[in-house]
Every structure is written in C-alpha cells, then in structure tokens.
C-alpha cells in the first residue's frame, strides 16, 4: 500500500474519476474511449492521487465481470499514480461481490494505504492520510461505500449504513488534535447524500444540474456528524451522470465529480474533477474535459 505525502510546495492534487462503467470483453468502442480518457485526464492533471468514486464496471448481464475489472486495473497500473477506490451500485449487481473486487484490488501496483479499514454488510469504509514532510497528518480522505439498492424498499438507492456513521465518528476523533486554520479533510462516496437536494436549493451553487438528484430517502445522519466534526471541507460523489454542480452549504461543499465513462448515459462532455489540497488553506476544485472524444448521449 502506498503512503501519500504533501508536495514540497505545500500542495497535493487529486483527480476524481467516476462512473467508468466498463463493460464486457471484447470491449466496444465506448470502453476503449474510456480507457484512453483515463490516461488523458491523468496526463492533464498530473495528480498525486486518483480517487475513483464508484461504478467502475457494469456487472449485470456481463459474463465474467472480474475480467473487465482486471482489464481496468491493467490500465490503472500504466498510470504509475496512487489509486483509491470506493464502489457504486452497478459494480456488483450480478456475478461478483464487493469482497471479490477488493481481493482483485491487490493487483493495483500503487494502491493508497487504507487506514482504519472497516466493513459492514460487505461495504467498506477507510481513510487515506496525506502527511507533511515531517510525517504528521495534514489531510484525511474518508472513503465510504454507499451501497446499491435500498434494502428497505423505501427509496431506490441505499443509505449510508448507521454503522458507517459510527465508524466516522470514532475514527474522525483520532484526527481532532490537528490545528488547521481551514477545514483540511474530504469525503468521497458514490451515491449523493440526501442533503444534496437542500444544498442545491439553498446553498451557493456552481456547475450543472441536468437531472434529479438520486439520493436515498433514508437519512442516517452522516452530514450531521460532518458538521459536528468540523474538519471535513467537502463531500464528493458520482452516480448522477448529468450533474456536476458544487453547492457550498453550511460550510461544507457538497459536489459531484464529472462523468468519466463512455459506455453509459449522459449529456455532459466526459471529463474529471481535480482538487488541489493545501496544508494551510481551503481546497480548490475545477473540472477538466476531454479534447478527443464526442459526448455520449
């Protein structure tokens, strides 16, 4: 596992890829575009870390989805960039489990080191630490597997498990002794929190909303825990291919990445979101887009 350090210039850059939706072998033209797009975005951003926020592959109706995942891993290994992953609702619909995917992750050459690893109902939560030159922790990234379909059948999509909220509360306390002028930490997951809807209506919004926000109906309190914790500056997800907005709401930015895969719906030009983290000031974020491929609709 790969340890991550803040650059000597006091910055750390993250490239968020999301909703790659790699399909069956032999790969179609859209999947080949996705592989080239991953390389293009990495070359443009030159990140210190790539975060992939779910729906890496299609699994329903796909024979041997592990082969598709292994092919994606081969592409990621060509990048020679540390990788952190959380999964989405389409990754394990059929023929493969999240445990299977996590076992395959061992083939990633530069997998970011997972701290305080925790699994509930086969859904993983962990931290990635970014350290300063002196070895102290500067920024913490929380990655939560937000699940798939609502097991209670109240809404369509799964909610953050209450045990994951407890995990966040317990683990985040371990990092409370840092004295930062600005909130240093971030959280990544696949399905947007319920608060995204309120944030879009009442927050300071930039970016695009072309479709309804596909949040769960059940609220298990993660956002409240983030507010109380006071260290998390932003929550970023995927899932909604035609949303890329960021809403600054109650001191936390709630935002989407930019759709990165071609083998799926979406009117937005394929791209990625880039974050620059600092040890002593608020993070900055922007969208980069492909210059090589047409938008998939």
UniProtKB/TrEMBL annotation:
Residue span, Calcineurin-like phosphoesterase domain: 12-242
Superkingdom as given in the UniProt entry: Bacteria
Signal peptide coordinates: none
Pfam families: Metallophos
InterPro entries to which the protein is assigned, alphabetical: Calcineurin-like_PHP, Metallo-depent_PP-like
Stated name of the protein: Metallophosphoesterase family protein
Organism, scientific name: Bacillus salipaludis
Species lineage: Bacteria, Bacillati, Bacillota, Bacilli, Bacillales
